[in-house]
């Protein structure tokens, strides 16, 4: 296909066609083996660039895969043969309004950069994926990302007040705005959050901010059994809403300890890291309640600290769990969640699936909201091992659905999980989803192969 017309529409250097450069845009973090080779990568710098690219693509029926930082874990930004990868990495403006406690940001900013910019005004942007230092705010919105604070503060959609989004035909529309209450018309902003680039390309976000997070108290507890750990989780969440409640199994504990040398108990079956940011003396009181809940559940050791640096060290250890386990071997990453009362059934069920398929599966979790991340270690050079790993991957998603849960709590469906989506939502919802897709993208150019 002749790209000269597209190149002429865009600023100098916006279109990349060098094969060596294109290779870096074929995969996201999921490393989908089905990734194709794009015709070009467009590195947009403005809404106008995005609109021009989509008008050209719609006219020529060329597929477009929107891409943020490429840190996605479900194959949502996997390139397709003969398509365009539309990157928003160069769209990095931000304006903070301390009066309305909002920020208007472009999608290429990293999550951590948004946090730092608003912190200069004494404000806080809560959604915090473990990859917050490398993931983009646009990608967070596209997948409705969550993170460690979700148990108390919610996910990305809870902080998106408005957006500018470019539709498949190149039309730019503004939805919502810097208003905390707005019931005018359909909730279209919510429709695009989590749509994974299948309905439009987000080029600007208006984010709700909170006052800076109070000082936190931290509780760390180890357990000799998975059952005892899940009992503690349910006891804590029945009493209060911690600002963080995270879980690591024995594989993750040992992988993190191998790298960070923190003195973690290598013999423990599970470790919980819980925090409270209740105001004043109430944080310490909530921490005491969490300590008591862990002890009653049979914790082998419980540690409580008011020191922010000590608390942050354990939070950093939890954030490091995925790369630590990945050093054992390549991963198939899951993101399944269940209602909290079924969390124990999910964790023990995953252990049974690992044994049955003779694969190593480590489980880490945002335990306070029932969202787990089973990490399936596999050897891509061993066909039999890879087959067992993929079988375990599917069985874990089947188990989550069976327990009334979801195949993704925060990473998105992408391409790797789309085969299981109909089993979760049912044929009527799938048909409705297709009708929405057809209305907004009648030629099917936006992220084909993802989600539906």
Percent range for β-strand residues: 15-25%
Report the average pLDDT across residues: 97
Structural class: alpha+beta
| Major β-sheet annotation | 7 strands, antiparallel
- Kindly report how far apart the N and C termini lie: 27 Å
CATH architecture of one domain: 2-Layer Sandwich
By DSSP, the count of extended strands is: 18
What is the tally of helical segments?
16
How is the largest sheet built, in terms of strand order? 15-12-14-13-17-18-16
Looking at the structure, what is the overall shape?
A: globular
CATH fold node name of one domain: Uridine Diphospho-n-acetylenolpyruvylglucosamine Reductase, domain 3
Helix content: 25-40%
Rg, Cα atoms, Å? 22 Å
Which parts are unreliable, with pLDDT below 50 for 5 consecutive residues or more?
none
Output the CATH class name of one domain. Answer: Alpha Beta
Could you walk me through the main structural features you see in this protein, from its secondary elements to its overall organization?
- 36% of the residues lie in helices and 19% in strands.
- It is an alpha+beta fold and 452 residues long.
- Among the domains are: 94-211, Uridine Diphospho-n-acetylenolpyruvylglucosamine Reductase, domain 3 (2-Layer Sandwich); 214-327, Alpha-Beta Plaits (2-Layer Sandwich); 329-410, Alpha-Beta Plaits (2-Layer Sandwich), CATH 3.30.70.2740.
- Strands 15-12-14-13-17-18-16 form a 7-stranded antiparallel β-sheet, sandwiched between helices. Strands 5-6-10-8-9 form a 5-stranded antiparallel β-sheet.
- A hairpin with a 4-residue loop joins strand 17 (360-366) and strand 18 (371-377).
- Helix 13 packs antiparallel against helix 14.
